Amino acid sequence: MTDEELRAFVADARRQVEANLAEIDEVDVAVLPARIRAEVEAARRECVELLASLSDEAIAAEIAAAMYAGRPLTPAEVAAIGKRQ
Q: The pTM is what?
């Protein structure tokens, strides 16, 4: 993967996460049962954390490489990458 391909891949990943976050933000969590509300709030936090990670080029490169290989990282793995940087 060239640097240009990696940047394009990361930009696409950011757009996807932003779209997911926009959909989550449309949900009125106040009307949801507590268990589902907690799941929606956790999904929102994961999207926000992933967006923050994708803003750091070194972290984004590692995340993108895993995604490109067809192995999306868990939120815990993304957090661990961020701590190593």
A: 0.69
